[in-house]
Amino acid sequence: MPSIEVQILKNKVQNLMIVVQSLSQQKQHQDQMGKKEKELREIYDVKMKCLDEEWKEKVKRVEMECVKEVSEVQKEHELQMAEMREKYELKCRELVKMNEVEKKYEVEMIEMRRRYEQKCNELIEMKLRNKKKVMSQDRIVMMKEIGQTPKAYPSNES
Hints:
It contains two helices and no strands. By secondary structure, it is mainly α. Helix 1 packs antiparallel against helix 2. The two termini are 41 Å apart.
């Protein structure tokens, strides 16, 4: 029975490790997106400072490309975050279900233990009754051997 409980705990640990790994990947992705956005901003700022009036038109074009790229990156990031959130919520629901099953299993185990102990107690009582019967019958035999009447002693037979 302990191996089932150990397996359940192992499964829980695995699920938690998956959640932690997912959150770690999410953090890495956020860091990458932040770096990329920062790099694009730095490129934009440097270009703006270096260019004079005749280059302003080109700068506007580059700015639009940067904004578009950042926007695309943000959209992609938001989609990935939503997907990761769904996976995380699914794992949480699975863990809740596993906990419910585990609780049901624990209740069943308690009931099985109770029935087992009851059966053990019944067996012990039966053995004691049989032992008393045997002892009573042995006493009758001994009394007959020494010449006493067994009727003087009541038997425990029922």
